[in-house]
């Protein structure tokens, strides 16, 4: 398992101002409390089991393939070299980069805009096309819908970027001092006074979650696949009743406990953005970090949905249906929030049937994922204008679908 051991990227270590830095540990503690309490045990175990087997395992498998391909595909290829030749090529390249699941491609484009290699139209194209980590969840849960969203993002992002190119020059709203803005983006890179004990805790937790998912990904995928075909896994393997359900709930609790110790929480960005990963990390390590981040937000959404329906007797599908034509707008507005966390909540609600596809479409186009954070730090004016521009096609396509298919 030594290949899964990674070095902690220094820029994820922030100087803590008080002792309780690992605030994410509140999630597994809360989940454990719900599992222990007799009144909530049955519903909690069922919910966590569904989240683990039906979501986490599929997401992990999707991420493993993605990170393995990313490692073995060279960035210095003919396509990349051609992408920078013309303004039109840049826009299409940026839309394709944004369509890659996760936030890495979109972050690259926003930083390339600051350095002067890409134009403002490319920023709009990548913000329109990216779905962030919500793409992994949608691809794993509803592949057809997920691929349709990716294709839509590429097309709409490319068109949007080309239109922007017709009205704005490449250096529109580009900051004058790129070095200064880069320092604003990475204010902690030079800090090395974080306690060694905290670094060791985070490093060990990161390594352990990678090892855990390396062991779980194949059997987890098998159980998830059997569950998708409505196979009773307990009966199939002659296991006691509820064995698979309890196993899924416990494994999810373990993975959330490890995830809670991999990052300190001190601001909005650290809550809603995915964990930063070392470039040299093993693909399975990156898979574990992204899978656990997605799982945490899915669990939150599932618990809200299930307990709201069970305890408060709220039928979210009925409640949201009464919103009528406000639903696409709600999806778009949620997409304007920086970070992947809020967007994972929207996608989870769509997958549970609480939100219609029009809201998901609006969120997918307006959603900027974590790419908005470096844009805000390095070029705030450009980030604001690009976000507003990305909301326009989001509203058009969301309401277009709503009027045609859902009205």
Automatic annotation (TrEMBL):
Keywords: Membrane, Transmembrane, Transmembrane helix
Keyword hit for Acetylation: no
Keyword Transmembrane (UniProt): yes
Pfam families with a match to the protein in the record: ArsP_2
Transmembrane segment boundaries: 51-70, 91-114, 147-167, 211-231, 243-261, 291-309, 382-404
NCBIfam families assigned to the protein according to its UniProt record, in alphabetical order: arsenic_eff
Name listed for the protein in its UniProt record: Manganese transporter
Organism of origin: Vibrio gallaecicus
